[in-house]
């Protein structure tokens, strides 16, 4: 399965949540609402989640292994940086 498109849908200047993205796989399956979060040391991604009745958040969709999570994170953060640079140039 290949990542075929990443769209940065929203960029926030304020707060820890920096962006919301959608990722398309194999030009036929999309995952919306992946968040770019500013951590204490670096940016990371948070998968879409929902709140359970007991107040806990559970991911709706997520990578099964560390290699896929790393690949997804690298590509999303690169696209986020590219989108930030385009905003600055405007």
Q: If you had to describe this structure to a student in words, what would you say it looks like?
A:
This protein is of the alpha+beta class and 90 residues long. The chain has 1 helix and 6 strands. The strands form 2 sheets. It has a 4-stranded antiparallel beta sheet, with helices on one face. 10% of the residues are buried.
3D shape: globular
Elements, N to C (H/E): EEEEEEH
* Helix count, DSSP H or I runs of 4 or more residues: 1
Strand content: 35-45%
**Whole-Å distance between the termini?**
34 Å
Rg calc: 14 Å
Helical coverage, percent range: 25-40%
The average pLDDT score comes to 93
Biggest sheet: strand arrangement? 1-2-3-4
Low-confidence residue ranges = none
- Structural class by SSE content: alpha+beta
How can the largest sheet be summarized?
A: 4 strands, antiparallel
Total number of strands: 6
């Amino acid at each position: 399965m290949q990542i075929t498109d990443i769209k940065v849908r929203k960029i926030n200047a304020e707060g820890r949540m920096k962006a919301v993205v959608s990722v398309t796989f194999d030009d036929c399956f999309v995952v919306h609402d992946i968040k770019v979060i500013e951590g204490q040391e670096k940016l990371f991604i948070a998968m879409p989640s929902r709140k359970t009745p007991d107040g806990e958040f559970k991911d709706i969709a997520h990578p099964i292994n560390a290699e896929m999570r790393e690949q997804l994170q690298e590509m999303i953060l690169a696209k986020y940086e590219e989108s930030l640079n385009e905003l600055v140039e405007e």
